[in-house]
Amino acid sequence: MNNLYTQEMLTALQKRLKSRWLILAVVCGLLLAGFVYSMIIRIEWLSVLLLGLAGCFAIFWTDLFIMPLLQYRKLLRAALNGRSHVGTLEYVRTEPDESMVDGVPCLGMVFLGEPDKHGSREQLFYWDRELPLPTLSPGQEYTIKYTGKNIIGM
């Protein structure tokens, strides 16, 4: 069984995350230094402008460039260190639409497993869009390793 995630992937992600935090700190630090200077020389409109820019940039940068990496890091940590399950299931289909699962873009993959309390055998698992999608044949059985509903090995 091939694991889809490695420790090197987590290390590379940590480096990218660190650089993005550093950019946020430098830009906000410069804007806040300008804010303090404008408070000292008593230019009220400049103080308000610089503080507003620092806040807007911090929210914008965090939401757009840091949060997706934090969500992906959470998935990687769960895949590498979390509790996982292994099952041999029959592949049915891949959903055509992309889904956001805990902030990570994924594709839904439907497998047939043991019937649940409602009698349904279809089980939905999620494949990370960052990884190349394997070619699977409908009706064929595959052994998958998963954590939660995310496939972490095949």
What does this structure look like?
The protein is of the alpha+beta class and 154 residues long. It has two domains: 75 residues; 69 residues. The protein is built from two helices and five strands; from the N terminus they run H-H-E-E-E-E-E. A five-stranded antiparallel β-sheet has the order 3-2-1-4-5, covered by helices on one side. Helix 1 runs antiparallel to helix 2. It is elongated, with a radius of gyration of 22 Å.
Give the secondary structure arrangement, pairings included:
Elements: H1 7-40, H2 44-81, E1 85-101, E2 104-112, E3 122-128, E4 141-147, E5 150-153
Antiparallel strand pairs: 1-2, 1-4, 2-3, 4-5
Helix pairs in contact: 1-2
Report helical residue fraction.
Answer: 40-55%
Count of discrete alpha- or pi-helical segments spanning 4 or more residues: 2
Terminal Cα span: 5 Å
User: Which term fits the overall shape?
Assistant: elongated
The overall number of domains is 2
The amount of beta strand, in percent, is 25-35%
Mean pLDDT: 94
Oligomer classification = single chain
> Taking Cα atoms only, what radius of gyration do you get, to the nearest Å?
22 Å
Elements, N to C (H/E)? HHEEEEE
Broad structural category: alpha+beta
Low-pLDDT ranges: none
Largest sheet: 5 strands, antiparallel
Give the total of beta strands: 5
- Order the strands across the largest sheet as they lie in space: 3-2-1-4-5
